[in-house]
Amino acid sequence: MCVVAHPDDECFAFGGALALAAARGVESYVVCLTEGQAATYRGNAESGAALGAMRRAEFAASCDVLGVRHHELLDYQDGRLEFANFPQAASRLVERIRRFRPDVVITFGADGGLNTHADHMMVSMLTTAAYHWAGRPKRYPDLATPHQARRLFHLSTAYFLPERQSPQPMPWSVTLDIRGVQATKNEAFRQHVSQAPLMEKTQSTFEQYGGYEHYALVATAAPQPVCLMTDLFEDL
């Protein structure tokens, strides 16, 4: 299960992990909290509502390319997740974790990712709380049967974007070699036609660094020491 803030996060940030999962027959579910209606790049949309509808369609097309079997886009306001009701928003993720019952959950780190976006920070905090609360019977007892996913990963990075204030990422413990699915990740990003200028702006960076994704293992179902991994599902 992958939880993101905006359409295009699923491919721009997590596309390699999702495409690798699909290639090995692992069922995946992406939950996106906003329509991305406050984006800088707006295509030919004349209003926030029109951009939101456009980005919903782009998100669905991207998930199809990545082989994501289940995807859902919620109704939070882009750029304002920090003002959302935290317990209520977390409860919606708890319900979805309990319903889908994932082994692995992935989301942004608390640094906000390469662009230090406040929405990315909030989705990290909401998903982290939901990961823990979903397994606890006393939290939201009316929301389906508790389920404790076995691993929670936060996205990390081995590089920064030029001309951006650098984040402070968590040191990674997983390096995913995504070169075999890099073309799929790129094709998924191309479905986000409204974000074409962003694609052009970041192309050289991803050509240099895009063969790998990095994740930090931040929670497990059983105590264990930190170890370096090359697979989100190692030993599961």
Structure overview:
There is one protein chain. This protein has 236 residues and is α/β, with parallel strands linked by helices. The chain has one domain (2-220): LmbE-like (Rossmann fold, 3-Layer(aba) Sandwich). It contains seven helices and seven strands; from the N terminus they run E-H-H-E-H-E-H-E-H-E-E-H-H-E. The protein has helices at residues 9-12, 15-23, 48-66, 86-100, 118-133, 182-190, 196-209, and strands at 2-4, 29-34, 70-76, 104-107, 151-156, 174-177, 212-220. The strands form two sheets. A four-stranded mixed sheet has the order 4-5-7-6, covered by helices on one side. It has a three-stranded parallel sheet with strand order 1-2-3, with helices on both faces. Helix 3 (48-66) runs antiparallel to helix 6 (182-190) and helix 4 (86-100) crosses helix 5. It starts with a strand and ends in a 16-residue tail after the last strand. The mean pLDDT is 94.
